[in-house]
Structure of Glutamate--tRNA ligase:
Amino acid sequence: MSFVTRFAPSPTGYLHLGHALSALTAFDAAREAGGRFILRIEDIDQGRARPEFEAAIFEDLAWLGLEWEKPVRRQSEHMADYEAALRQLSERNLVYRCFRTRKEIADAIASAPHEAQEAFRGEALPPSEEDEKLAAGEPFAWRLSLKKARAALGPAYFALVFEDETGLVRAEPERHGDVILARKDFPTSYHLASVWDDALQGVTHVIRGEDLRDAAHLHVLLQKLLGLPQPVYRHHRLVLGEDGKRLAKRDQAATLRVLREAGKTPDDVRAMLANAPSP
Ligand code: GLU
């Protein structure tokens, strides 16, 4: 069986120990399986992504001893792909326009997929009301309709399962509600782009942190609706900083570049990860 996995960081800050654990876990798994390791740059959030962070990702990962296939896929260069995927869903009436406040929509689309979104349920407005809002130029988001997805898939919706390190899990897309897949002026969200690219790049094993465990419940539904193959999921533990708090991009002390400048070696990083506390 082939084994293809990936590390998919967003260049919105410097990589820290948590990212190192994700990258090393995926890279080591690929090595062990005699498989392939892909690095993908998830920079759809062009308001926050910065070229210097992308350059730092390459530098930090190379220093850690990782090797990846070239060229690296940069999501911002493939927006048309995600737009086409969204169109597939909208042509089948599986998404609807949701006109909520600009701020709610902007918050929900941010490429940081770790924050739980409100499990929203809704439906399309009556056509006359929708036309009025469109004519007035009101912003909107495209939401996946779980109701329509259920109707489209029938019994297959309830039979959706995926494999992770705990065994076979029944998918519960309801955890996410009607998730935002795109917005008026922005053709994709993390969920849609990530699922699309995993399939396009032939990823067989998605390896990422515990904090994204819930995402699989939605991703397998998107795969089913879009006719994409389903990968196996593996979630690794999260690591906390020395202060016992979750690492965030703003925690400079735990960034790989600060550790490197302080004279740490890649082996030191592996040792720190092995000893780091978990939540
Ligand atoms: N770009 C996402 C992140 O920053 C990747 C999540 C994933 O691996 O699917 O965490």
Notes: The pocket of glutamic acid is lined by residues 8-10, 42, 113, 194, 208, 212 (CB under 6 Å). The chain has two domains: 1-77+237-279, 78-200. The first strand starts at residue 4 and ends at 7. Residues 105 and 141 are 6 Å apart (CA to CA).
